[in-house]
Write a structure and sequence with these properties.
Elements: H1 3-32, H2 36-53
Length: 54
């Protein structure tokens, strides 16, 4: 594989990860924030945090 193809592949991968992150943030703000789902996810991570704080 040529260096140019590797650079393009890595750039596409990084761009895809960044786009996915922005999409997840948008989805969270649009549909999850303030719902029962958010409270249950928050409670799960609170329990997980308490487990590791011991």
């Amino acid at each position: 594989m040529s260096p140019v193809a590797e650079v393009l592949g890595v750039s596409a991968l990084v761009f895809g990860i960044v786009a996915l992150l922005f999409a997840l943030i948008y989805i969270w703000d649009r549909w999850v924030k303030g719902t029962v789902l958010e409270r249950s996810i928050d409670a799960f991570f609170d329990r997980l945090g308490k487990l590791f704080d011991r």
